[in-house]
Structures are given as C-alpha cells and as structure tokens.
C-alpha cells in the first residue's frame, strides 16, 4: 500500500470511529486561521434576531430570509414616531485570541450600513460598530480591523470604552438607519474573522 492510500485508510478509520467526532468547519478554520459565521440552508432563520425601533416607539420593520446560502436583511426604515433604524444579530461562533479583522462579502442597495458586534465589557453588554457604504447591485468585500470598531451603549457612543477584545464577541449583525422613510435590502454572502 503506497503512502497516499495508507493515509486515506487511516483517515477513514478515524472518521468512522464512534469515539471521535470531527467538525469539518473547525478543521477548515484551524487550517486557514479564520472563523466563519455560518448561514446556509442547514442554519435556521430563528438564529437571527431582528430589533426594530419599535423598542422606542418607532414603526420601522426589518425582515430576514435565506436564499441559496445567502442571508438577506431587508425591510423599511421609517422616521415616524421618532424612529429611524432596524437591526439584526446572530450569535457568533467562538472568536479566538489573535483574531484582528473581520471581512464581509455583501451586495447592497447603495445605502450606508453598520457592521456591529456585541461584547461583554466589565459586566455590561456593549455594541461595537463600524460603518460601511454599498454600491447598488454590486458584490463587494469589506475588511475591517477590530481595533477600529467604536463602542456604544443604547445608542450612545462610549468614547472611553476599551478596545474591542476578540474573545469577548458574542454576536454579530447589521444595522441600517435613515433620516427619511425608505426601503432597504442587504444581501450577505459571507462573514469571516481572521488573524
């Protein structure tokens, strides 16, 4: 038996062993030093939580859907009743120490958005955010350094907050805001944290 066949036989034996569970996503992440946020047909839309400005009396509405392994966040932002935003979050996979950046592969509608992560800081849940622009019907990749994210708490910027710590990230998501009523649609093809 040559070396290639021997290696293949060993791998088959390991995988078939009931005492060993292999997560292929984790193996791929270890190889490439990246951590991907999954949202494919095996995932559930229930994993995404929409937070509209109704918590403040507004009437904006955000919706989620999965289509061909693409996550779509769409709806209407309304300024009625002092509203003007809607957001969506998903629990993040565990982010390891040493991760320094996050990349998103998106197709937007020409409107600005924010990429947001939630983080536990000294017993408080802070939101760290960074703005990005989109070009209508254009597939784009944006990469951001985690150190450039700005902290906020209940809509207020926290200028003296510590720098975002990767291991403290619990959720990842998006926010859209507007000064006039408008529809929006953001298609997300990938979210990936990397060293």
How would you sum up this structure, described in words?
With 195 residues, the chain is mainly beta. It has one domain (32-194): Sandwich (Jelly Rolls). It has helices at residues 3-16, 24-32; strands spanning 34-36, 48-52, 61-67, 70-77, 85-91, 101-107, 113-121, 124-132, 139-145, 150-153, 156-157, 169-177, 182-194. It has a seven-stranded antiparallel sheet, with no helix packed on it. The model is unreliable at 1-31 (pLDDT under 50).
Cross-sheet strand order for the largest sheet:
2-5-12-7-8-10-11
Main sheet summary: 7 strands, antiparallel
- Radius of gyration based on Cα positions: 20 Å
Order of helices and strands: HHEEEEEEEEEEEEE
Helix coverage percent of residues? 10-25%
Produce the secondary structure layout.
Elements: H1 3-16, H2 24-32, E1 34-36, E2 48-52, E3 61-67, E4 70-77, E5 85-91, E6 101-107, E7 113-121, E8 124-132, E9 139-145, E10 150-153, E11 156-157, E12 169-177, E13 182-194
Antiparallel strand pairs: 1-13, 2-5, 3-4, 4-13, 5-12, 6-9, 6-13, 7-8, 7-12, 8-10, 10-11
Which terms would index this structure?
Jelly Rolls, 2 helices, 12% helix, mainly beta, 195 residues, 7-stranded antiparallel beta sheet
